């Protein structure tokens, strides 16, 4: 019997201060935690994150993780586990970051419905739950694309799907964001002529290929500065920059402040509950 995409667990939890879950991993399931109250320290694959109300942790199969609640009021979560995603679901899963924020409570609303379906077990609840989960994955992938998704949405005709060129380019950038790569490599990987890719990005996104790559790198830099304990130097290397000086200039031109000032401003805000 073939395996099918399914929800394996869902529920609401209230953890007390100092509580949490010791280090472990899931070999078969994907797990998502949405925090809707309190804050915690979460370690995923040896990277420490600080999470608060409105944040979402996305754990893929095999991710080693643990967390400990640090806020006095404890922490409230909605949690969902699923297994055996198909090709359609994997298209979105591959774009979802470890940590990001819910927008307009969209995921909170969808997860609440999934949990409710699991409690009530009305006829068709399994199908309804996976349908809601599929919708959640789409929203989460869009959230994680950040400004790059907003640009695509604004510049392209919303009545037609994103072109295969832009889709391939975006996937390639995220897969190779930790190293410097030539645009020709990207073109070869996607199987298109380099000039054709340049024209497509310009026509559909209103920017050059270099600008598109840089917009994604900038968004990832902001996330790593705000949500992890990585130093500026570590973030620089993790995003494929060849010198700290160039990364600082790159970031400052776009954020209108240096990486260190951005860290002092936003990382401290994330830690206010500790």
Q: Supply the number of structural domains.
A: 2
Which series of helices and strands comes N to C? EEEEEEEEHEHHHHHHHHH
Give the biggest sheet.
Answer: 5 strands, antiparallel
The separation of the N and C termini measures 49 Å
% residues in beta strands: 15-25%
Look at the structure and give the CATH class of the largest domain: Mainly Beta
CATH structural architecture of the largest domain: Sandwich
Which segments are poorly predicted (pLDDT under 50) over 5 or more consecutive residues? 147-162, 268-274
Backbone structural class: alpha+beta
CATH fold name of the largest domain: Jelly Rolls
User: Strand arrangement, largest sheet?
Assistant: 1-8-3-6-9
Into which percent range does the helicity of residues fall?
Answer: 40-55%
Mean pLDDT: 85
Nearest-angstrom radius of gyration? 20 Å
